[in-house]
User: What shape does this take?
Amino acid sequence: MIHHPAVKQNPSLVIFLPLLYTVWSDDVLTPTEINTLHALINKQQWLSTEERSFLLSQIDPSNPPSAEDLRNWLKEIRKVGVSHAISFASLGNALASLSGHVLQPEVQRSLVGVEETLGIIPQEVAYTFYPESRKTLTQAQGTLHTFNVDAMANMLEGKHANLIAKVKTILSDPEFAYLDTDSLSLQREKVLRWAKHLAKQGFGSIAYPKEYGGQNDMAAYFTIMETLSYHDLSLVVKFGVQFGLWGMSVYFLGTEKHHKKYLKDIGTLALPGCFAMTETNHGSNVRGVETTATYNHQYKTFTIHTPHELAQKEYIGNAALHGQMATVFAKLIIDGKDYGVSAFVVPLRDASGKLLPGITIEDCGRKMGLNGVDNGKISFNTVVIPKENMLDRFASVDEHGKFVSPIASDNRRFFTMLGTLVGGRIGIPRSALATSKSGLTIAIRYGDQRKQFGPEGAAEVPILNYRTHQRRLMPLLANVYALHFSLQYLTERFINRTEEEMQEIEALAAGLKSFATWNNTQTLQECREACGGKGYLSENRIDALKNDSDIYTTFEGDNTVLMQLVAKSRLTEFKQEFSNMNAMRILNYVADKAKTSLTELNPFVIRNTDEEHLLDPEFHLSAFRFRERDILTSAAKRLKRHLDSGMDSFDAFNICQHHLVEVAFAHVERVILEQFQLAVQRTSDEGCKKVLNKLCVLFALNQFEKNKGWYLENGYMEGVKTKVIRKHLNQLCWEVRQDAVPLTDAFKIPEACLSAPIARRK
Assistant: This one.
């Protein structure tokens, strides 16, 4: 076109050059574009018949310009400075001026508004020809360092920073390099060897009393479990079964004679063992186990027996290969009477690994994950053990062959026995937390470095700059920080517990275990998808993290069952609260409820979209507390209504199960927010405090978004308010993105443990 005689004769025709380049730049001229351009050209009165015919020939789809033509057109257009490229008219006018030709006013006016006619954003005309001039907010966003990473790491690690550093150093040793094999035997032997290395460091016995080789430091044990979870979860489970479940059951359920006999060897892994509670027919229902322990007073022995195949102990870690002894949960039978579940130490193998008489063990084989753990099924065929093998802290048989216990109530004794083992429900969520941190570190680093798409003709943009990517990952990053502080709180309460607090702590452990492991499953799925095909490659570790931790929603109790336990605990407290109230306190309670309705449910508050209000921590906590209390109250009323109608209590609870799970969620979410807010308040470093506050607000707003249906249904918020909450949630995700990489750096996960090419720093 540039060198065509018609253009040389009338340089004004170059005014159409930017327009023609734009419509042909995608190599397709649509019917709508053809019709629009035909109409535009035909209405130009200043064109001669020959000039009009020439221009129409330039938009003939059967005779498109060549690639060389387009390159030459662009080269000619770019001779004009970008300052003129504010519209097709101004750009065309500048092109004509280059040849010393001044366009007539009617010619200049001819292309005014044509961008809008063709669906082109006028202010973006320049980017078609000068893509390097485009500067967007999305392009400009990146990682900043608004806080001191080391200060944040020190706060997260707390008093166990030195222990954590020691464990991380060991995990970074070449001996702990990952084993790339599908061989079950090689994986299991490697994990056993790793566990022995850790035992030599004194990590296995660290929670046991000093006289048995330990340091009497339960908090350190949980810290080690969490830190090991950055490495390999088969190792974590092997470690937890040996030193936690097996060792702690002997420690907590046994007495001094058991401690002296077993604990030191358990802590050094000289005596590998198992925790045999779960049966094929009875998983979460421990009270229903069918394995029997029948006492023989004449010989002062117990006979451990599996009455049928479905009563076998199943999915028992350490059983298939390495376990030499097991804590076996069985029904205690004395003179034909069932005295409920007790625990017994039962030998499985001799020191050479040979099964003992009456013991049958079947390997569970390959699993979805955790294939470094040798799970097995155990059956007992009239296996005789001495009387002293009964773990007798809470129940025993006296010298006369009679059942005795320091706890008279069967119910209380059973739950006291299980309550001492609640530590597993602390170790598992802390392990899941570390797994979530690993997945997010990989996905966020990758998103910060991986570039995809971008403004037309301009450089590509890191995928972490895209709002949808931020909405996927930033709330999950807030979740892991929130869970970190709430699990620290749970750990402290468990370690410093009193007997009166035990039921509440057990319920809290059940709830946080469920929330943390469900969150972990969701987090790792999002991380996998956020990394695209790279996330599917085993070398980038997300597959191992997903597969190995998936069972966490079932380990130590099925999550849905555990959430019902939480709800029942809350209902018990609710009932006790009212039963202990006198008439005046009940009136005060009703008055407080009425006051809440007046202040929080008045039309102004439920529609209040003021930014200061929506980002206010007091508003967040009040809303969470209101939801918790309201759901609990409505569940209690619903149950009472069914019971008052004569319905069996079992059926009443079954009808209300979904409602009860919501009670548990509301309670756990409130505790998590409360502890997060307290952690922010305790933070002295201003940079850390500012970013933690953002994460805390993000956690709260994300829960509002998740539960907005409930808040709308119950009149606590109106649609206008939930819409603005969503806007602030999006904005917070945008702001937290700039801190996302440093926030994951603060986890201080060893590079040897990440071992993911997509997470390597460029």
Observations:
- The longest helix spans residues 467-495.
- The CA atoms of residues 711 and 717 lie 6 Å apart.
- The chain has a mean pLDDT of 90.
